[in-house]
Amino acid sequence: MLTAAKVPCGAVNDIPAVFADPQVQVHEMIVPVTHPTLGVLPLPGQPIKLSRTPARAGGELAEPGQHNGEVYGTLLGITSTQLATWATSGVI
Prior knowledge:
Elements: H1 15-20, H2 22-26, E1 30-35, E2 39-44, H3 68-75, H4 80-89
Antiparallel strand pairs: 1-2
């Protein structure tokens, strides 16, 4: 109906269809990234491809809360004692 009316449109894919799409595969839009406990996960890659400075997946994925000390402590000045209190009480 939309196509007949010349309205730009297309299919809405579920996740398996997105991963299987030939364009996604040929442009290497899904890349394997290593998670410390889950192993290798397929994740979206960098959409912009530069010949002289190619993007590549970073190191391992962080665990939830792994960088709380750096974020709350260094950037916001929260003490390690306060972070520990928040962690044990479930705030973070």
